[in-house]
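Example noted here:
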Amino acid sequence: MNLDDIWTPFLTQLSKSTAVSTVSKKKITGIPFLYFTVNKGIGKATIETLIKVEAAKVMKGKRLQMDYSFVREDQSLMVYRVRFLVPQEKMFCCGNLCPDCIRFRE
């Protein structure tokens, strides 16, 4: 699964929000960080709700999970670490008679 297909609409929807002036994604050592420039009076709870709602929309119908954590805040700038996670489970039988083999799924 190409996660760019998830990130593009996710960032587009975040930037359309009235709570946010600008949104940018930066990868630092392979970990994506979102930099939000928020409008006056917008708090951390509002941005976190926005992240959850928009992530749920882009993940709908896909086997993904989203993980986010608050990093820092400086005046109107908020930084979050946001990752979309693909489940790590076996998709084929390796022939080693593993107890969690895909052959035993219903």
Notes: The chain is about 25% helix and 35% strand. The radius of gyration is 17 Å. The chain has a mean pLDDT of 89. The first helix runs from residue 4 to 15.
